[in-house]
Amino acid sequence: MSRGFVKRWWKVLRRPSVKYSLLSLLAIGFASGIIFWGGFNTALEATNTLEFCTTCHEMRDTVYQEYKQTIHYSNRTGVRAICSDCHVPKDWTHKMVRKAKASFEIWGKLTGSIDTPEKFEAKRMTLATHEWERMKAVGSRECRNCHSFEAMSGDIQKQTVFKKHMKAKDEGQTCIDCHKGIAHKLPKEYKDDGED
Fold first, then answer.
1. For position 30, what pLDDT does the model report?
2. pTM of this prediction?
3. Three-class SS string for the chain?
4. Is the pLDDT score of 193 beyond 80?
5. Where are the domains of the chain?
C-alpha cells in the first residue's frame, strides 16, 4: 500500500460533509453501534432469566410449578438449570434463531390459546412434541452443555444406568430419546415406547 493511497483516504475521511467530517461521522457511528450492541445484548440476556420466563401465568402456573419439583431445580449440589439452560442455545447464532422462533410462540399468549390450565393441558402434547423434535434435531445440544457421555463415570453411576448411557452413545442416541418428561409432566396422550 503506497503512502499516497493512505494520504488520499485520510483526506477523504477528514473532508467535511455538509457540517461534519466523514471521520467524525464514522466515530459517532462506531460509538452508537457499541451502545446499540450493548443495549441489545443486555435486553437479550434479560430474556434468558428465570424471572422473565415466569412473568406470564401460563408458564408460572404450569411448567414452572412442575420444574420446581425436579432435580434441575433443587439437588444435593445446589446447581440449578433454569429455563434458558434447556431451551436457549448458548452460541450466538443458534440463540438468535431460537429467539426468533420463540417470538412466534408469543402468539399463543396474545391469542389466548393457552391462557388457562385447561387450554394449556389440551395443547401440552403439541407443545411438548415441538420441543422434543427441536431437541432431537440439535442432538440435545442444551442438555450436553452440562451432561456428556464422556464425563459419565461407571464408578459413580449405577451400573444399569451407566450401561444404558453407553449403549445410547454407541447407537447415536441423544438425551431426549430417553429423558422426555424429566423437567415437566408428560402429556396425557404420550405413549411410552419403553424409554426410561
1. 96
2. 0.76
3. CCHHHHHHHHHHHHCECCCCEHHHHHHHHHHHHHHHHHHHHHHHHHCCCHHHHCCCHHHHHHHHHHHCCCCCCCCCCCCCCCHHHHHCCCCHHHHHHHHHHHHHHHHHHHHCCCCCHHHHHHHHHHHHHHHHHHHHHCCCCCHHHCCCHHHCCCCCCCHHHHHHHHHHHHCCCCHHHHCCCCCCCCCCCCCCCCCC
4. no
5. 1-46, 57-191
